[in-house]
Specification:
Helix content is 75%, strand content 0%. The chain contains seven helices and no strands. The chain is globular.
């Protein structure tokens, strides 16, 4: 499932706001995909690394898994909950 540009921006912004270090993004990659961040992307900056996670989730049709992993790691992060609510109809179609 591919996100439209507004959905992509909302998810990218939320993930970048909540997972602000490379170690945070590494942990998310491991939990969401059972892969290391280096296996997913060789991007140099954090924004590109987060966007690579989104791209992988789109490719595998598992945006729900990425969001679930993010919320498991940061359960108090309202931006992630807002994105999940906004994408709920799309996430249901993944199943």
């Amino acid at each position: 499932m591919r996100l439209n540009s507004a959905q992509y921006k909302q998810l990218s912004t939320a993930l970048n706001d909540v997972f602000g270090t490379e170690d945070d993004v590494k942990e998310l990659a491991r939990l969401a995909f059972d892969l290391t961040l280096d296996q997913l992307t060789l991007a140099a900056n954090l924004l590109d690394k987060v966007n690579a996670l989104i791209g992988k989730a789109e490719e595998l049709n598992c945006l729900g898994r990425l969001l679930d992993a993010a919320i498991d790691l940061r359960p108090a992060a309202q931006p992630l909950k807002d994105v999940r609510a906004a994408l709920q109809a799309l996430l249901v179609s993944e199943r």
